[in-house]
Amino acid sequence: MLISKNINHLNWNKMNNMIPAIAQHYISGEILMFGYMNQNACAQTINNKLFTLYSRKKNRLWIKGEKSKNFLHVKHITTDCDNDVILVKVKPDGKTCHLNKFSCFDSSELAHSFLYKLEKIIKIRKNNYLNKSYIKNLFTLGRNRIAQKVGEESIESIIAFLENNRVNVINEVSDLLFHVLILLQDMNIDFKSIILNLKNRSHD
After folding, report:
1. Predicted local confidence at residue 101, as pLDDT
2. Closest Cα to residue 111, out of 189, 35, 170?
3. How far apart are CA 48 and CA 124, in angstroms?
4. What number of H helices and E strands is found in the chain?
5. Which residues contact 182 (CB under 8 A, 6 or more apart)?
6. Which molecular-function annotations from GO does this UniProt entry contain (predicted)?
7. Could you give the angle at the alpha carbon of 73 between the alpha carbons of 70 and 76, nearest 5°?
8. Fewer CB within 10 A of the end CB, N or C, for the chain?
């Protein structure tokens, strides 16, 4: 974890007192944007917990989201092995790209990141009392109904597996995973907790 007292240890001489800085989504791992920091921008990012860059065009510091209000809240900061690139894991308030996209980069190949987006949709619909979606209805019906749906989808996944039907396995496991995400949200458990638990079990 990069902290203020370690800033001087970074390799500022390599690019004329500037260091490339990458903003990465703290859950999905998606690369959201790229820019440059000088020492002041780096210090402000650490202290204010908001992703801050140095604009070479404007010749000043600028906080990502200062106009759009789509701030990038800092969760963790680290550097590469040569101390000449900064990686900032962030929680975005909204879309990062000025073209109104989630990321400035094409993230279509990061299939796992869709789970985060789906989880976010489930959270929004869970907490929207005016929403009349299938998701909201499940939360309204309560845990017994949610548990029943997870059980049903589990059985249907097993049947498809035993029938050696690849198409049905994909469809049924998709339904199962969707309802498991709903079950987790009913207990206010993020899918990230499951991923971290699996990582902790790994001995590789």
Report:
1. 86
2. 170
3. 27
4. 6, 6
5. 122, 135, 138, 139, 146, 149
6. ATP binding; phosphoribosyl-AMP cyclohydrolase activity; phosphoribosyl-ATP diphosphatase activity
7. 150
8. C
